[in-house]
């Protein structure tokens, strides 16, 4: 593979109404519409270093192998052939990715480099507070893009683990039509279609309609649900240089909450000589419900003034209506010495309300080339407004303790018996940003970016038992990054990068005791992170693929971590949290028909010293295994006269962890996955996928004496017809 070290000229794109003043831009091109060959059908992660595509998440139209930081893409074909249940399932073979909450279906759990990540949809930051975070339907995704580590210089308020950008399906310049039918474990059934076509004969107006509906059960007894999703888009080419794409979506998600919280005693270690059955439900299947209506509308407006200057504007409004009632059990009555004879503490939690977001981004991108330099410069601003208003009961209302092995599902309180109070969060953010990248003589790359954010948060909590009802945050934050990269001989490209992140927790935290009048609700100070990353990207001409090695060190101020306050487990801000590690990723063709995708991450995550339940001083952080590794081999049977058949096998290794306070050890786990892909007559495609084939029962994580089971064996098959 030959890799050019030149910055790619942005594709001609389009204009916006508000360009004049501070508008400023991104010439990011969409990942290529064409699917990879059948040889690559089993790949779990396709790095940007291995393919000639750009990533929208970088905002400028440059090849990510020419970017001095860790970036990866999971493409549409891989998403389809893994038959995903949720978005975090797609990241299983991404370096350093961890889901410590296992098989919880209620939301996506994504951690990288020891910290949480921020979710974007088409480059727009999503609301991630409490139970009202955005639900993502994998069927509606074109690709997933990942930047590992801090990215506030691009996106402002964001988590330190990285950003995950979810690229949705939009109109295509070539008509395409596909219908699919999927079935599998846990009575999963799904049907969907994806149709993209011209409205006008010349294709200057075109549409795309994506829709699906499914239903399924859960590994938890009595838990089931259904989901429906529709997403239309419409593109108008106003001129050769100007286009407008309108996008909308609606999702209905109704199910029984999984309530997949389990006591450590009975899962990680025996409880009175026995283990709690895998599917035990401590909730109330008859009355607990998760009922979400989520709708969005927006546009993307693009204009190219000439071959060197282009403007992009994007806007999205999203509204969510959620009723969420769940009953769950925890291990809080148990101690380090053994399980409580009083059973498991249970609580019923209810949240009923709405969340509305407006996001608006403008950027202007210029490129120019001289004899010695190839340069791109971008200026931009964005604005976010999030409002979350709901009635709830905080941490829930305690109900009768449950028998760990035979929990009752009757006698639960009605909604009218639950004491609710009003809550509201208003979060506004205005960000001004710039970034530049230049390559000198196809040899030295320099990249830098800077952003300033104005963040305002107003939050109220009307709990009558608290000592305060509101809190505010008014903050200005400067973030920057800088990197250098050398394009050496033999495809060896070492690089060095510095980047920053900050994150504001809009949700108020309960601080103080647990008796009425002893606690209040307050907004934490912004969490600030800086990272130093050094690595080597290896892409020689003779290698169809890449090898990447990266070392990183993150230091976080005002970090959130488990703490003990007055002898009670709590979450609080600590002075500093650190993560240091190494990541290795390989994506290469071993033969014409055999391809390897492998990843390994070693990390040590620490926080200020604390005393565990045994009085010993510790500094390890929660839910952070030191070792995470994976490998996927895909083989195309062309040499056996079956070029349309590809079979893949994967192994995932999750290192051991500890409940940092009670010291329960969570054993490591090794899981085996596989898939098979067969295409017929250019129209038909058959996919079979299995994860955790041996049905290994394991615990994905444990903290605060509460454990989370990993997902057991899941087998699914899909048939699709395209024309």
Radius of gyration: 25 Å
- Give a short account of the largest sheet: 22 strands, antiparallel, barrel
CATH topology: Maltoporin, Chain A
3D shape: globular
Instruction: Tell me what the CATH architecture is.
Output: Beta Barrel
Quaternary structure state of the chains depicted: single chain
Q: What percentage of the residues does DSSP assign to strands (E)?
A: over 45%
**Approximate helicity band:** under 10%
Number of strands: 39
Chain-wise SSE layout:
Blueprint (H helix, E strand, L loop, with lengths): L70 E5 H6 L15 E2 L12 E2 L2 E2 L1 E4 L2 E2 L15 E8 L3 H4 L6 E7 L7 E9 L3 E11 L6 E13 L6 E14 L4 E14 L6 E2 L25 E16 L4 E22 L13 E26 L3 E20 L4 E6 L18 E20 L3 E18 L8 E17 L5 E12 L5 E4 L6 E4 L4 E12 L6 E21 L2 E22 L4 E18 L5 E4 L6 E11 L4 E13 L2 E2 L6 E2 L2 E12 L3 E8 L7 E5 L2 E4 L4 E9 L1
Parallel strand pairs: 5-8
Antiparallel strand pairs: 1-7, 2-3, 3-4, 5-6, 7-8, 9-10, 9-39, 10-11, 11-12, 12-13, 13-15, 14-38, 15-16, 16-17, 17-18, 17-19, 18-20, 20-21, 21-22, 22-23, 23-26, 24-25, 26-27, 27-28, 28-29, 29-30, 29-31, 31-32, 32-35, 33-34, 35-36, 36-39, 37-38
């Amino acid at each position: 593979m030959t890799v050019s070290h030149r910055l790619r000229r942005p594709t001609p794109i389009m204009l916006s109404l508000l360009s004049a003043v501070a508008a400023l831009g991104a010439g990011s091109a969409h990942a290529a519409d064409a699917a990879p060959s059948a040889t690559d059908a089993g790949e779990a992660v396709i790095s940007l270093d291995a393919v000639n595509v750009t990533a929208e998440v970088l905002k400028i139209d440059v090849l990510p192998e020419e970017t001095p930081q860790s970036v990866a893409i999971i493409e549409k074909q891989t998403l389809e052939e893994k038959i995903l249940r949720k978005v975090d399932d797609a990241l299983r073979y991404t370096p350093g990715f961890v889901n410590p909450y296992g098989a919880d279906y209620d939301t996506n759990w994504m951690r990288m480099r020891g910290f949480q990540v921020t979710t974007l949809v088409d480059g727009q930051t999503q609301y991630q507070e409490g139970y009202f975070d955005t639900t993502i339907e994998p069927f509606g995704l074109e690709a997933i893009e990942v930047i590992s580590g801090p990215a506030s210089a691009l996106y402002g308020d964001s988590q330190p683990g990285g950003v995950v950008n979810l690229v949705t399906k939009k109109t295509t310049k070539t008509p395409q039509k596909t219908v699919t039918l999927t079935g599998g474990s846990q009575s999963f059934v799904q049907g969907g279609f994806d149709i993209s076509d011209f409205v006008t004969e010349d294709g200057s107006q075109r549409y795309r309609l994506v829709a699906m509906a499914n239903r399924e059960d859960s590994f938890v007894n009595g838990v089931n649900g259904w989901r429906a999703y529709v997403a239309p888009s419409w593109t108008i080419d106003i001129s050769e240089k100007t286009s407008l794409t309108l996008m909308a979506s609606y999702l209905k998600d109704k199910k029984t909450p999984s309530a997949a919280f389990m006591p450590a005693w009975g899962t990680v270690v025996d409880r009175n000589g026995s283990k709690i059955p895998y599917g035990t439900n401590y909730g109330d299947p008859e009355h607990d419900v998760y009922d979400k209506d989520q709708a969005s509308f927006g546009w993307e407006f693009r204009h190219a003034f000439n071959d060197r200057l282009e403007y992009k504007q994007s806007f999205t409004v999203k509204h969510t209506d959620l009723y969420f009632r769940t009953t769950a059990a925890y291990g809080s009555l148990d101690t380090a010495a053994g399980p409580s004879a009083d059973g498991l503490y249970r609580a019923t939690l209810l949240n009923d309300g709405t969340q509305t977001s407006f996001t608006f981004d403008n950027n202007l991108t210029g490129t120019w080339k001289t004899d010695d330099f190839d340069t791109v410069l971008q200026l931009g601003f964005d604005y976010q407004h999030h409002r979350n208003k709901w009635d709830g009961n905080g941490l829930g209302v305690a109900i009768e303790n449950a028998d760990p092995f035979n929990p009752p599902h009757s006698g639960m309180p009605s909604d009218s018996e639950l004491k609710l109070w009003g809550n509201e969060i208003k979060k506004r953010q205005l960000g001004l940003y710039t970034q530049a990248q230049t390559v000198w003589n196809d040899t030295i790359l320099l990249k830098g970016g800077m952003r300033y954010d104005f963040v305002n948060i107003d939050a109220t909590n009307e709990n009558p038992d608290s000592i305060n009802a509101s809190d505010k945050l008014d903050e200005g934050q400067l973030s920057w990054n800088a990197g250098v990269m050398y394009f050496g001989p033999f495809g060896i490209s070492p690089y060095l990068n510095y980047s920053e992140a900050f994150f504001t927790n809009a949700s108020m935290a309960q601080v103080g005791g647990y008796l009425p009048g002893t606690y209040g609700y307050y907004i934490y100070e912004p969490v600030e992170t800086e990272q130093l990353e050094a690595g080597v990207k290896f892409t020689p001409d003779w290698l169809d693929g890449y090898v990447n090695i990266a070392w990183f060190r993150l230091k976080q101020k005002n970090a959130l971590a488990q703490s003990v306050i007055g002898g009670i487990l709590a979450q609080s801000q600590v002075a500093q949290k650190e993560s240091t590690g190494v990541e290795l990723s390989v994506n290469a063709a071993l033969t014409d028909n055999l391809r390897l995708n492998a990843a390994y991450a070693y990390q040590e995550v620490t926080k200020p010293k604390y005393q565990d339940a045994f009085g010993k001083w510790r500094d390890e952080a929660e839910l952070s295994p030191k070792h995470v590794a994976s490998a996927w081999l895909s083989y195309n049977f062309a040499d056996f006269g079956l070029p349309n058949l590809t079979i893949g096998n994967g192994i995932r290794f999750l290192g051991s962890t500890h409940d940092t306070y009670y010291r329960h050890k969570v054993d490591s786990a090794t899981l085996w996955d596989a898939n098979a892909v067969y295409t017929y007559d250019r129209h038909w495609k058959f996919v079979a996928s299995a994860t955790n084939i041996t049905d290994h029962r394991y615990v994905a994580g444990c903290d605060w004496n509460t454990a989370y089971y990993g997902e057991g064996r899941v087998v699914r098959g899909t048939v699709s017809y395209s024309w």
